[in-house]
Design goal:
By secondary structure, the protein is mostly helical. Helices cover about 30% and strands about 0% of the residues.
């Protein structure tokens, strides 16, 4: 996730770094399979490599639970405030430095509850 403009007025932008580099030589096989999906209405109808690449970049997602992208101490402070921005907090597992070995649901709930406490507590 990347904020739009410095003053916070721009829309957030998603970027998938795993898809930003050129694909390896096995790409042709993957594109051929995707063309079959297009025929079934599950992918873009165009068979150009450029259109298919764009579709993959904009429509794909990860099943992994991202964490560590807004690491506490580096991006957010001890009260989950984003450094350098006013009135912006991060209250999800992205503040965790590493992914937990279990499900991220309980840690995410705890982080959200703690953020709510920080927000409700007057500034000292």
């Amino acid at each position: 996730m990347r904020l739009g403009l410095r003053d916070g007025t721009g829309a957030p932008a998603r970027r998938a770094p795993r898809l930003s580099a050129p694909w390896p030589s096995g790409r042709r096989h993957q594109l051929d399979e995707l063309r079959g999906a297009a025929n079934a209405g599950l992918a873009p109808a165009s068979d150009s490599d450029q259109d298919i690449d764009e579709y993959i970049r904009t429509q794909s997602f990860s099943f992994y639970h991202p964490s560590g992208t807004c690491m506490m101490g580096k991006v957010v402070d001890h009260e989950l405030r984003v450094r350098g921005l006013d009135n912006v907090r991060v209250a999800d597992t992205s503040i965790m430095p590493t992914l937990v070995t279990g499900n991220t649901n309980a840690p995410a709930i705890m982080i959200g509850e703690k953020a709510a406490t920080f927000i409700r507590t007057p500034v000292r």
